[in-house]
């Protein structure tokens, strides 16, 4: 039987079913386990969580005489509140990127720690808790709904050492944004996000020296890495009530539209919509991120390169929707304006994909830094436009990421 109790009532031997409160406040990424270590109780008591659900059929019950709310009593308590709801839709108010960036940074940090724990448990052969992961997806979805550019752009700032874990967070966020662009419903959008979060789970079984090799893989090593979709699929099958779409993306996110992908060489309509979405998001984050063997490409240049591959690699409609979800010049892109000033894209605008907000900070005419100024290229009567994409490696601005994010370094 499920019972809601105060955290102070927790004892070793109880089965912790679920925390009450936001996932961001949870001391563990997952739930659904028996408390065996008193240190876990101390960790919970030190958090802001005040109540939890326990399953007395799978662990110790509360002692006789102690208060506990049953599931039916809890349902009666909230039923009145539910009746007052005008709609079941999640209402999330949009905000500007500079407002969302701090909240997105916290979500990135928490999500990275959760994914590390998820991978560690998978390496030890434990069942992956999709329920705990879904709470993560809800937080990421809300951030993307408030402002899609903030979290997606921050997640790109991962270090080479963080890549495996933050890649999952980044793909989750992009899958959510792409699902919204494609007009998928709320349930499908959550499934897309969860699929993005879990798509590379199979890498937890890969040899660490191969996974983190700071150079090009040999043919034999690449053959090992190419087994990660099937390994991830196997790990996910061991869980309970796994979303079929999550399994689909995990197994087929390396398939290509022309049939040259792996593991099954599927092509065209043989590949599901969700797997096609996963392929685009996976590649974009891979080529824009710093890896042990290469520096990530500029976001706008990455989209240009992907467009060159799109016929054979990606589904055309999915790729076009992906570009619309990020903008032709995604946040963080270095561009030169028609005035000769260099700037970094800080926000998309609603008028056109080619008229974002750009923070200018350098004059190519005087070859000097200038006082930073945000220019809204969509403003009526404006005369400036983007003249060209610029290669950050050519200019070597050490503070380029700080200019658009406002953060001195990645917060993880």
Q: Care to describe what's here?
A:
The chain has helices at 38-46, 71-84, 97-123, 130-146, 148-155, 163-181, 186-198, 208-211, 219-225, 228-237, 244-252, 273-288, 299-313, 316-326, 392-395, 400-405; strands at residues 2-6, 15-19, 33-34, 51-55, 69-70, 334-337, 341-347, 357-363, 368-376, 386-389. It starts with a strand and ends in a 7-residue tail after the last helix. Strand 8 (357-363) and strand 9 form a beta hairpin. It is built from 16 helices and 10 strands. It has 3 domains: 2-84, no CATH class; 97-326, Hypothetical protein af1432; 334-405. Helix 3 packs across helix 6. The strands form 2 sheets. It has a 5-stranded antiparallel beta sheet with strand order 3-2-4-1-5. A 5-stranded antiparallel beta sheet has the order 9-8-7-6-10. The chain is of the alpha+beta class.
- Major β-sheet annotation: 5 strands, antiparallel
Q: Which residue ranges are poorly predicted, with pLDDT under 50 across at least 5 consecutive positions? A: 80-89
Order of helices and strands: EEEHEEHHHHHHHHHHHHHEEEEEHH
Helix share, percent: 40-55%
End-to-end gap: 39 Å
What would CATH call the class of the largest domain? Mainly Alpha
What is the total domain count? 3
> Do you know the CATH topology of the largest domain?
Hypothetical protein af1432
CATH superfamily of the largest domain, by name, is Hypothetical protein af1432
Structural class: alpha+beta
CATH architecture of the largest domain: Orthogonal Bundle
Q: Count of helical segments? A: 16
* Spatial arrangement of strands, main beta sheet: 3-2-4-1-5
- Calculate the mean pLDDT score and round it: 89
Radius of gyration: 23 Å
User: How would you describe the shape?
Assistant: globular
Tally of extended strands? Answer: 10
Approximate strand percentage: 5-15%
Pfam family, one: DUF3391
Protein name: HD-GYP domain-containing protein (C-di-GMP phosphodiesterase class II)
Organism: Rhodoferax saidenbachensis
């Amino acid at each position: 039987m499920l019972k809601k109790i105060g955290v102070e009532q927790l004892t070793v031997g109880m089965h912790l079913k679920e925390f009450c409160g936001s996932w961001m406040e949870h001391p563990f990424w997952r739930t659904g386990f028996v408390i065996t270590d008193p240190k876990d109780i101390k960790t919970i008591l030190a958090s802001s969580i005040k109540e939890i659900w326990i399953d007395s059929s799978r662990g110790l019950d509360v002692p006789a005489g102690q208060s506990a709310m049953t599931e039916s009593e809890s349902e009666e308590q909230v039923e009145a509140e539910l009746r007052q709801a005008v709609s079941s839709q999640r209402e999330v108010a949009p905000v500007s990127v500079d407002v969302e960036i701090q909240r997105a940074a916290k979500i990135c940090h928490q999500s990275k720690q959760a994914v590390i724990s998820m991978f560690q448990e998978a390496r030890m052969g434990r069942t992956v808790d999709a329920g705990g992961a879904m709470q993560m997806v809800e937080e990421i979805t809300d951030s993307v709904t408030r402002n899609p550019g903030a979290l997606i752009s921050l997640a790109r700032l991962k270090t080479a050492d963080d890549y495996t874990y933050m890649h999952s967070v980044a793909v989750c966020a992009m899958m959510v944004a792409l699902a919204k662009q494609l007009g998928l419903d709320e349930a499908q959008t959550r499934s897309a996000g969860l699929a993005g979060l879990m798509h590379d789970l199979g890498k937890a079984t890969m040899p660490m020296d191969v996974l983190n090799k700071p150079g090009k893989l040999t043919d034999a090593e690449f053959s090992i890495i190419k087994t990660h979709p099937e390994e991830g699929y196997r790990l996910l099958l061991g869980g309970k009530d796994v979303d079929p779409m999550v399994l689909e993306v995990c197994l087929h996110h390396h398939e290509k539209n022309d049939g040259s992908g792996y593991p099954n060489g599927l092509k065209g309509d043989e590949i599901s919509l969700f797997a096609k979405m996963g392929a685009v998001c996976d590649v974009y984050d891979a080529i824009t991120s710093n890896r042990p063997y290469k520096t990530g490409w500029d976001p706008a240049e990455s989209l240009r390169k992907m467009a060159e591959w799109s016929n054979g690699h990606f589904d055309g409609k999915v790729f076009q929707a992906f570009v619309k979800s990020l903008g032709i010049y995604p946040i963080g892109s270095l561009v030169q304006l028609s005035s000769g000033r260099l700037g970094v894209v800080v926000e998309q605008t609603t008028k056109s994909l080619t008229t974002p907000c750009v923070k200018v900070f350098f004059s190519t005419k005087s070859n000097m830094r200038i006082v930073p100024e945000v220019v809204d290229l969509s403003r009526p009567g404006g005369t400036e436009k983007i003249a060209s994409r610029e290669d950050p490696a050519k200019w070597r601005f050490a503070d380029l990421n700080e200019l658009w994010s406002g953060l001195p370094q990645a917060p993880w």
